Amino acid sequence: MKSTLLTGSACVAGLMLLSAPGEAGAQTTVAGESTTPLTTSTAGNIVLKPEAELEVTGPVAITVNSNNNVTIETDEEGDDEDTLDSDDDVERGRLTAGEVDGAVGIRVNAGVTTTIKIEGDVILDEDFTPDDDDRNGVADGVVAERTGRYGIYVAPSAVTNLNLDLEGGLIRVEGLNSGGIVVDANLGGDFAKEGTLQVYGDNGVGVRLQDVAGDVVMNGLTQVVGRGSNAFRAEGDIAGILRVQGSIEQGTTFTYDTETGASITLSRFDLRVEAPAAWVQGNVAGGIILGRTPDGDIDEDDDDEDNDGILDDDDEDFDNDGILDEDEGTAGIYSYGNGAALLIGGADDIVVGLLPQGSNVNSDVLTGRYSLLIEGTVSGTATFGRTDAYGLVLGGEGGNVSLPGGIGISGSVRASTADSAATALLINAGTTVTRIDNSGTIQADIRSQGEGAAYAIRDFSGSLTTIENSGFITASGSSTDIVRAIDLTGTTANVTITQFMNADDLETREEIEEDLDDDEEDETIYTRILGDIVTGSGNDSISASHGQIIGDVFFNAGDDRLTLTDEAVFSGDVNFGTGQGTATLSGEAEFFGSINFAGGTGSLTINDDASFLGQVVNGQSAAVVVNSGTFGSNEVETSTIGSLTVGANGEFKAYIDGETQESSLVIANSARFDPGASVSATVTTLVGAEGRYTILRAGTLVGDPVFDAETTNLPFIFAGDVDIVGGDVILDIRRKEAAELGISGAATSGFDAILTAAIEDDNIAQSFLDIEDGAALQAQLNQMLPDHAGGLLDAAVTGTRLAARNLMDRDSIFKVTERGDRAAWIQPLYWKGNRDAGANVGYDHQGSGITLGMEWRTAIGLLGGSYSFIDGKVENNQIDDEDPTQTIDASQHDLGLFWRTSDGGPIHAYARIGGAYTSYSSTRNLTITLNETDIGYASTADWDGWLLSAMAGASYNWQPSKQLTIRPRNSIEWFQLREGGYEEEGGNLATDLIVDSRTSSSLAVHNSLNITWSIAPRERDYRPLTFEIGGGRRTILSGDTGRTTANYEDGERFSIDPVKLQSAWTGEAAVFAGGWDFTWKLGIAAEKPNNGDINYSARASLSVAF
User: Fold this and answer.
1) Other Cβ atoms within 10 Å of 1085 Cβ, number
2) Burial (0-12, 13-18, 19+ Cβ within 10 Å), 386
3) Distance CA 315, CA 308 (A)
4) Cα separations (Å) of 225 from 276, 331, 757, 1018?
5) How far apart are CA 176 and CA 203, in angstroms?
6) What is the pLDDT of residue 297?
7) Which among 273, 576, 715, 851 could bridge 803 via Cys, Cβ 3.0 to 4.6 Å?
8) Can you say how many angstroms the Cα of residue 939 is from the centroid of all Cα atoms in its chain?
9) Which DSSP state fits 85?
10) Is the per-residue pLDDT at 81 higher than 50?
11) How do residues 345-375 score in pLDDT, each as one tens digit?
């Protein structure tokens, strides 16, 4: 083969011929810039190198009119740029056609066999600025000027063998009535599109196909922007599978000037021409799959899930579609207007066959062979008002549509409108699709209030008879909108709608709960139907074992059935039609709403732990049987039924509105309560519910029902009696006294005031109604009480007592004559203690501080003064490791004056008076539990006070030897704490307290015996290392915490009786030493009160004479 290099005019300067034109196997390589159109019949195979640019001013850049190939290369494989102006250094071969009508980048003539490989760019831009007279960025007319332009065009023929390889390539076309890849021939093999394809202009098409003898694969991005444009349109039959693994979308905005970045947005009129983003008009024999990137090995027990003989760990094409998994994306079909995202249907009848076995390798939930499998997203959004939106539409184009395998959805199908109609999945008349399996999301929503309509699934065909949901089917809007999750109004066949929790979600929940505490559960909602459900005239069935159904159900004609089992929750109204209606609840299922039997025969049966709280309407011929579980009301309403039977394990529940003093009522022709059957009531208010209520009126009351404390169940704080008067069942309610509730201490004083105040907060009021035992009630009441247990007095007294301990240390007295007659000391201190809860709440207290003192030797002894700063904290209602319900930060500035003896005789005496300014900052927390959720409140306050003190004592030294001293010691001490009143803030009327001033006092004597031992005899200028140990008892002579009086705003005042102070055993140990003019001492002490654990304290002192 000879190679010829052509030179001369600019039009051929970039061409290098590897063989002469027309020769078999000829190849033309474009290595630079060229403006010469090429034809394969003369150029042979055509290759544009990465640095090449073939810019043709004529209508067609490359014509494939022989069995040759075209390649546009790039120097980096797989680069996927969607703009020409990238900032990287990648070189891409580029082909452009003239800015004229009918321009084509690559034209494939009829009947040829060719491979077109595009790694670079095929660009058909035009220099056109769309009209925007008002400069609002919205087009006022067409968005392009030239017409009939194509990136790749295949001319009509019976069969053309086209192999497309768009590995990261870019095809961009601007023009009216134009296309990216338009194949008007029947293809003899597969069609696979990758890379990026963009078409900007009205009535455009991204990809258009006729008959395809193999599979069709849409990967990468396919985007159109223009009035009436389709991103994908299959006009003929597809003999294989239609697989979407990329994005097919109708955009609303595009950049028409890449240099300036100027862009334009389509108007609302452009988006109202009902053009779908993707349109399938012909048969698809192998089914349609909107896939996602394969997950690989999802079944740990199966090493070859796709049965292709390759182990999952080594399988690079897990879904067997001929595309490496790493090159596959997730399908997304998007429309922005009133056209469907995906429309399946045409003028002729079509069939979408079954997908091959194993096509749904990404899911072990959807295991059927479907005709349409959606693992990705189908989304229709109406961006402007007064515009309908559609996600997936089947039929409606004149011909019938059949999907014999039904539809499987593990991804999402969505439709969203501003204020009109949104239909996520529409099945038009003439369509046959019997089944929808959903483990993903089917959703329709209206974004603003109005009179619109939202349909998640809407069937006009009457063929849809089975819906299985383990995902979410949702229709949402305002109260003035029509909101239907499932609308099968015209269906005459029997319909079965089933909701359950699939195996994957069950496994997920199990894994989550393994990490939770024993009393915790995974509260995730794994499946839900939200919106109304409307069925047709068949014998229809709706059943759910898990998740939620929220909305009303309209069964219409037929013998219909509602079945709730396991953990299913239904909230809404059920309307049976003219046939027999049957409702069954079992397991832990819950029903909230109403059932309308329409006057016909029917039944409601409740088993296990299931509950029905609602109303029965037009049920005069219906039977209610409560084998076990609960039947009752959740508001003041009247139910009419034919008969009521409550078994031995059943519960009949009334609803009491304390504010209106009205109750629910069931009117029955006959009623029977088996022995053991119980009566209960939901009470809405803490105050005002007391009274006598008729809750059942039966024409005939069978048997002689007896109700006692075991079979009359009310909120814990209420007591009730049931009377039978003729056929009436009457419930007599009263609120229990404190003694009946098992509460004690301070809680009894504040009980009435707290419950009255709780009415001001619905959550707090409900939390009291939900309390089930005395311990929980006591705990909640304690949180709502003011500080009263004595912790502030205890902390203040402990701090001052420690600050004064230096006065009792006769070892710190100096006999100094040469260096003066003064001494000073410094003493840091710390303590920690607690008191157990008795009749009042318990508390912890701790603090630290420092004392400075000085004394002078006088004729009557040592006189001096001291200053102490003490910082403490009191934590009320501290139980185990739980957080305290009230924390009070306390500080005090203490001044003292004292006298003590100065001689060295065996008797040492002292006296002290003091006063301390105290300040307090409190945060009181209330935590309630409502529907298994904790809700917190915080009330804060600041106040101050004064602590007055007086103490005196004496000790006697008896020395059996020079190193051993036995020292009995006695003291008396008096304290009085005067606190100002305060008002809490930060909470609300149900939590913030107004507390009066309070005075607490204590008078006690302390008797102890200490023993010291020195390592050597003491000298005048030497104080040897000495150890001291002692013990005694502090006896309270009188005193208490003072009466605590408080009220909630506008509430009744209540008083908590003073807490008597407790005596305590004491013990201490110390070590000290010193010299002629200094001493140091380290001491620890312990105190065991009668009502608390051992309290500890420590101090260190240094005394110096000068």
Assistant:
1) 19
2) middle
3) 9
4) 12, 19, 63, 104
5) 6
6) 55
7) 851
8) 28
9) -
10) no
11) 999 999 999 999 876 656 656 667 899 999 9
Phi, psi angle pair for 658, to nearest 5°: -65, -30
The radius of gyration of the chain's CA atoms, rounded to the nearest angstrom, is: 45
> In sequence order, what DSSP letters do the residues of 315-359 get, joined into one string?
-S-TT-SSS-GGG----EEEEESSSEEEEE--SS-EEB-PPPTTT
Query: What pLDDT was estimated at residue 624?
Result: 98
Q: What is the pLDDT of residue 257?
A: 82
One-letter-per-residue 3-state SS of 508-549:
HHHHHHHCCCCCCCCCCCCCEEECEEECCCCCCEEEECCCEE
784 vs 167: which has the higher pLDDT: 784
pLDDT at 323 (0 to 100): 64
Rounded-to-integer distance, Cα 107 and Cα 2, Å: 28
Q: Which amino acid is at 1056?
A: I
Beta strands in 395-505 (DSSP E): 401-402, 407-409, 412-417, 421-427, 431-432, 435-438, 441-446, 453-459, 466-469, 472-476, 482-487, 496-499
For Cα atoms 1060, 1065, 1071, give the angle at the middle one, nearest 5 degrees.
Answer: 135
Q: Which residue has the tokens 């709706």?
A: 542
Q: Is 86 helix (H, G, I), strand (E, B) or coil?
A: coil
Find how far residue 252's CA is from the centre of its chain: 33
Q: Determine the Cα angle at 234 with ends 331 and 171, to 5°.
A: 65
Q: Which residues contact 508 (CB under 8 A, 6 or more apart)?
A: 526
Residue 21: its pLDDT value, please? 33
The SS3 call for residue 395 is coil
Report how far apart the first and last C-alpha atoms of the chain are (Å, whole number): 118
Cα gap 170→168, rounded to integer Å: 7
Strand partners, 469: 438, 499
Tell me the residue type at 1079.
T
Share the mean pLDDT of the chain. 90
Model pTM above 0.90: no
Q: Is the pLDDT of residue 25 over 80?
A: no
Exposed / middle / buried, residue 725 (Cβ in 10 Å: 0-12, 13-18, 19+):
exposed
Q: What is the dihedral of CA 739, 744, 747, 748, to 10 degrees?
A: 40
Is residue 491 helix, strand or coil? coil
DSSP readout, 967-984? EEEEEEEEEEEEEPPEE-
Instruction: Return d(Cα 402, Cα 388) in angstroms, integer.
Output: 25
pLDDT of residue 325: 66
Candidates 733, 695, 738, 691; CA nearest to 715 is 733
C-alpha to C-alpha distance for 964 and 973, rounded to whole angstroms: 29
- For residue range 988-1006, list pLDDT tens digits in order: 999 999 999 999 999 999 9
User: Which of 209-213, 712-716, 734-738, 999-1003 has the weakest average pLDDT?
Assistant: 712-716
